[in-house]
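User: Some background: our group keeps a shared notebook of sequences we're curious about, and every so often someone picks one and asks for a predicted structure to add to the entry. Today it's my turn. The entry only has the sequence so far, pasted here. Could you supply the structure so I can complete it?
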Amino acid sequence: MRLILASGSPRRAQLLAAAGFEFEVRPAEVDERTRDGECAAEYVVRLAVAKARTVEAPPEAVVLGADTAVVVDGLILGKPVDEADAVRMLHLLSAREHEVLTGVALRHGMDEVSAVDTSRVRFLPLSSREISWYVASGEPADKAGAYAVQGLASRFVDRIVGSYSNVVGLPVARVWQMMRQMGFKGGGESAGD
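Assistant: Of course. Here's the predicted structure to add to the notebook entry:
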């Protein structure tokens, strides 16, 4: 099986590689603006499907599209537009629980499956000084919700309920489950399993 990751995210690539997937990267360019009245789950699935459909692939390939959003009080937090936006987002997340949703889409020829994985994350209270330090590190710049759970922001995360890899940017177990749903075998299984 040939797997194509329709994302330029180094975090998604690292997660797939760590789980033993062999794949090639072909970033998809899609409009990531939310639509009026669109809830977070609809938003991330729509973008994941759009990414999977955008990338050209040979018939034998499976294209994987994904998109992650952070949600607090029903507000979708994408990537911050600048440092002030990152500061605003981190103040919103301080001492609170929020959700991280990742839409995942797989396309193999004309067959498609999609799903949403949701994790809940609770942040410790953050002082303005801690937020300024973190934003100055540059890490929040291209991250949904302005933080990377696997990086410097790990010191702020009190607990996670759900998939850790989902919070990083790709629910790997969900991806594998969906690939099996599409009939792909691997990981030591034989065709008769």
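Suggested note for the entry: The chain has six helices and seven strands. The first helix runs from residue 10 to 18.
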